[in-house]
Amino acid sequence: MVIAKITEVLFSTITIYNYLLIIRILLTWFPNLDTSNPILVNLFAITDPYLNVFRGVIPPIGGLDLSPILAFISLSLIKQLIAALASIALQYTGAF
Fold first, then answer.
1. Exposed/middle/buried for residue 71 (C-beta within 10 Å: 0-12, 13-18, 19+)
2. Model-level pTM?
3. C-alpha distances in angstroms, 69 versus 36, 40, 55, 60?
């Protein structure tokens, strides 16, 4: 039961983070946006460190930043890993 709740919280957190990344990416379409807005400052502070990891792996190609693709793929893989580990843990504890 505890494992299921932990898994649910982790999945919800990853889903919310995915939405934050989508908003962050959509905001790049508006170059004249006031980035001193406290909401945007916090959004950038939450998402940019994660995206910067992937920007170091894939540099922009022709001005197109492909790092969000890797970011979403890695979050998806993390979600699958959590699901697999939770399944194994539930089977091991007999709570499945």
1. buried
2. 0.87
3. 26, 21, 10, 12
